[in-house]
Amino acid sequence: MKKILGIVVLCLLLSTNAYSACEKEDFIKYVEVKGNCIALFGTKKNEINKKQLIILLHGDHRKRDIGGNLPAFVNKIENKDRNVFVIARPGWKVKNRKSDGGDSRGVDRGDNYIFIRDIEPVALAIKKLKEHYKPEELILFGYSGGAALTGVIIGKYSGLIDHAILAGCPCNVPEWRKHRKKGSGWPRSSSPHNLVSNIDKDIKVDILIGKNDKNTHPKFSEQYYDLLKKENIDVTLTSFNGNHSTMWEKPIKIINLIKKAIDS
Predict the structure, then answer these.
(1) Which residues touch 10 (CB under 8 Å, ≥6 apart)?
(2) 236 CB contacts (<8 Å, ≥6 apart)?
(3) Please, how many CA atoms are within 13 Å of residue 167, restricted to the half-sphere of its CB?
(4) What is the pTM of this model?
(5) Which of 53, 129, 142, 194 is deepest in the core (most CB within 10 A)?
(6) What angle do CA 175, 176, 181 make, to 5 degrees?
């Protein structure tokens, strides 16, 4: 009997340790998801019941550090009616705060959009922020790999997001990987183009593409746009002069497009 009780206690301890809460959760710098800390960078004054909650998702930066531009987006977009947050995807840093999880080997060592490891924690973090801040409208903006995550989230979590903005989206992940000539095509990764039929019909979607984008080629966004139109989703497609890095290195252009989409 003692041996059995010992095994039960050990199992409980292991279970507790594996699922321990994020003690740093404050809904400003961190939010807890299944025991992991997901890092945030947000507006200077976070208040419940503001009209809009805007979440920004970054791309696949090699150093696993988001750098300065998405936080700069926050400062340009925030106002008295908006809470704005950057979420660091699992394994990435924002402002020296790191999200738990992700692929410890780094970027481009394997699939970057595995649902349980890479996407579900982000979606659940967004859900918790929505429940905490209680906005009238939840807007999700994703750039590059973050746009891929955005497309998967609106396909997997119908009704969570009111307005999605996808910029430079690799919206057909297997074909995009072939285009990039990068290995196996990430067969374990989820892809937005497979989930279009599940998207809530009340959502608004804006797709932004650089005309000279040789990375996430415009055709992948255009194909996704066509699929959304067939599902009678309220979707717009906007192209601008620039390439994939223009959105990141010269953000004022994309910031103005985001503001236009948000205010429309």
Answers:
(1) none
(2) 205, 206, 207, 261
(3) 26
(4) 0.88
(5) 142
(6) 95
